[in-house]
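Format notes (please read before filing issues)

Several people have asked whether sequences and structure tokens are stored in separate files. They are not. Every record keeps both together, in the order shown below: the sequence lines, then the token lines. Line labels are part of the format and must not be stripped during preprocessing.
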Amino acid sequence: MSLPLRDRTAISLSWNELTGAVGDSATVLPVVVAVAVLTELSLPVMLVWFGVFQVVWGLYYGVPISIEPMKAFAALVIAGTISTGELVVAGLLLAGILLALGTTRSLETVNQYVDDTVVRGVQLGVALVLLETGVDLGLSDPRLVAVAVGLVALFALLGYSGQSAFAVFVLGVVLALAETGVPTPAVPAVDAMFMLPRMTLSVQTAEAVLAQIAVTVGNAAIATSVLLADYFDRDVSADQLSNSMGLMNLVAVPFGAFPMCHGSGGVAGKYAFGARTPGANLLLGAGYVLTAFLAVGVIAAYPTALLGVILVLIALQLGWTGVSKTDDLAVVAAIGVLGVLVNLGLAFVVGVLVQQLRAQL
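Then the structure lines:
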């Protein structure tokens, strides 16, 4: 596999890269823990796959790119709307669609009809969804949230606001260890990696794919492409991102992975907390794999309220990026609000249609 951006790639394993890695993990851990509890998917196996592709795509693209669970799929499987077998089929179908879109450069064509205002609106919508999720998680333990907010404020007053998320993360690890004790190493179950016999095709499968595809195109491909240019001055096209998402899901979903994407929320999380090189991906990838073998029980016991605090911090960073880089705040806000009230896919489609109508007037 060639590395198209290798000549411009510097890899650092500094403290900022470590704190940046924490910013991305906050968009992953709440979802995969919930999926592991409520479905047949194995938490250790899911973490291994997230770790593998953190490293693969970080090195390939040469930026601290994110690897996140596909949120629409997650919402449906957690709610019980689709089964694990239907999720596997939906993930494979979407992988094929993404590869087809990327290979034919269809998103390059789509992007010609997507105004920058729409992309910023989707970014704001993702931020609002993360904010809502973070607040919901935080309500599980308001007193612990108050401690975490105090810790964030203290670090900000001392001039170390970039390390505040990591401090909150460490606090959660300490509390989880206090509950579970010293973790016992364990090898992930091999049979959890073979999901093909459980595949199920249904109407719900098709509905899940339709729900996810709009979110993936709008947020994980187009919006992430723009965000990588904003933050890291890298020209990574939406079609390239579509190809990499299709490829990793085609490879991993049949073997116990949860469907994955390059979400803009994770990129914002990495950037907000210090990541500037793919070193953050190497650290986070190693962390996921080590956790899968050594301390998966600690992650399962991690206080969700503290994950909520970290998600709120990420949401504020991403939301500011969305509103600060537009001259049409009203439309951006409308798309963002529609995204959080209904869904991001519909918000993306409505935004494109409204911008096309405005252009013709």
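For reference, the curators noted about this record: The chain has a mean pLDDT of 84. Residues 203-232 form the longest helix (30 residues).
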